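REQUEST ID: PR-0412
SUBMITTED BY: lab tech R.K.
PRIORITY: routine
TASK: structure prediction, single protein chain
INPUT:
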Amino acid sequence: MALGFLKSVRDQAAQARTPAAAAAPQLPAARPERVSVLSEVEQLGVGMFWATDAQGRLSFLSQRALQDLETDGGDLIGKPLVDVFSDIDSEPGAPTQRSLSFKLKAHSKLDEHVIALTDARGSMRWWRLNGRPLTNAKGEFMGYRGSAVDISGQYAYETRVARQSQIDELTGLANRRKLGDKLNAMLGAFRISKRSCAMLMIDLDRFKQVNDTMGHPAGDELLKQVAKRLTSLVKDRGEVGRLGGDEFQVLLPDMDDRGTLGELANRIVQSISQPYTINGRRAIIGTSVGIAIAPYDGVDTDELTRAADMALYSAKETRGGTFCFFTSELRDAASKSAMLGDRLRDAVDRDELSLVYQPLVDPETNVVRCFEALLRWHDPQEGFISPALFIPVAENDDLIIRIGEMALRRACADALTWPETIRVAVNVSAKQFIRPGFHKTVAAALEASGLPPGRLELEITESVFVGDLESVDAIFRDLKKLGVRLALDDFGTGYSSLGYLKGGHFDKLKIDQSFVRGCTENGDINPAIISAIVALAKALGMETVAEGVEAMDELALVRERGADLVQGYIYSRPLKQEDLLPRFADGTMKVTAEGPARHRAERISMFRKVGLIHEDHYYDVILRNLSKTGARINGLAGVPIGTEVVLDLGHGQLVVSKVVNATEASQGLKFETALVSDGSGGFMTRHRISPYSLAEAGIPLAALGAGAFPLARWREAHKSVPRFVQLDLSI
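STATUS: complete
OUTPUT:
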């Protein structure tokens, strides 16, 4: 298989210090009037004078220079000049110049060279030097003769102004200008050396709520604390900056490992989402992170920034409180999202959204105790549209308020027709929850339907715990006065609301499906997490629900660990109201668990054309499903079990694989190295083949697309007879 492509010299003083008189070279006799003029010039403050010997040691400082440094010169004369005059640090406003030691070694002239030095009191001063090398009649180097001007006041002012122009005044981080300059320089240099660079775009979720409820000074203090948390996470691996408002950016040179970047982004989300104390009050916000990597996602500043922005938008649109990597598909998704928003608004106006109900079942008796109301949308032209697509679109608009109120009213009305022992659970968005008068909306729905308050559960995600917590607590108190039940959804995945459980607001905890999926795999720590959540809930008198149970071994584990209720395909998919009513004939409802015996690694079903490489041939195949550890493909015949291949997922993502099962036209692949999460429910390779390698293979960077990689040239010139039969993918 062809996988070959996958592979200031410091100066030191050599002589001891000698007295100034002995070290100073003999100057030619000067006329008295010349000496007088030089002395008067110096006394007027026009300039200062200095000299070195042939070995580069300071041999002379004029009286005005000694006065400026508040010294008699005894501690300076005889020292190497580079030990007295230091190069300035590379900071905003500092001039760009070669080092002093380099110029002295080359016997170059000094023109307006800025140096730093310390006076007798330890204060920093800055001089501007001019100097010329002196030679004797034989052309031998005798040392330097030069002048100096003290520019300390001017230099300090200019660097302070320059620093302010590149530093965010509030947080002390790099500002937009400095980040842009640094990224420009970095990408320009990295293109030459073929290095990578990652950009993280960070936006705070619900920061505006803190500003509105606690005031702008509190918002400023919050931004300062966010800046400290970011710098403590990134450390010296990169540059952290604030673009303005509640937007931050991180630049990470020489970073293209998407597994490591995903881990860092996840830590950023978790850290920023921890509670803040501001003027004695507590506040919680969230954050979303978009990630783009040069040169894969862009080779200049504008390209990379646009890519990171699109990834950030996708992260916020997905659900917020997460991260997302840029993919080329996001460009299409952005335009589709805008069109989807227009169609969704029309659908709400025409009352085209409906509700289905998924049962929450007692695993000991198989009796249904509650139904969760779930939104569905069947578009006349597009057909069924997943809530994962249209709910985020609604969340970005006040449309979620209208949809939420509709769902609440309809669910209460439907539940009234069920047996009195069965409750209904309705999801409440954070935007809907914090809207003034939300408790009145709930009361109106109960009154209109006649449903007893105790039969209504409001499922609230941890994202409500953002902003001013006193306002959040007040909303909870108003809802509890109505008599409705409150459930905390997706527990453990969001904004760390553990401290709010002891407040007594919640009646139920829903264990997120991410803790349930794969909980029976060897070495998985999720069973311990499930046990801890159940024990905590029982201690606080709360009910627990295990979400997303799909296999019999998962059901057995959550039942053994003490979950009160189970929700998932193991019992039932969501059902329409008309399908439920006939099943209540005996005043209750029972369902039997049915499903696979064991959990299978999470797979994503799809129908996408990708590539497969074997020996020196490239084949087109259809990717049917994908998991972290394997995939199923269609499109080839005659592929023996045990064959080693490379799966090309596009955009430089090559996965070394082995065929572990096969049918006439379908193969199951096992990956040599597991994929990693892309932060949005999908999978990706940890590393990619660099576009620089693609360009070297004769593929222009601008032409890159799905399936493009160095071996694409094999399509045109095969070196041997293909071993497999390429099937027609259009059938």
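NOTES: Confidence is low (pLDDT under 50) at residues 1-30, 699-715.
REVIEWED BY: pending
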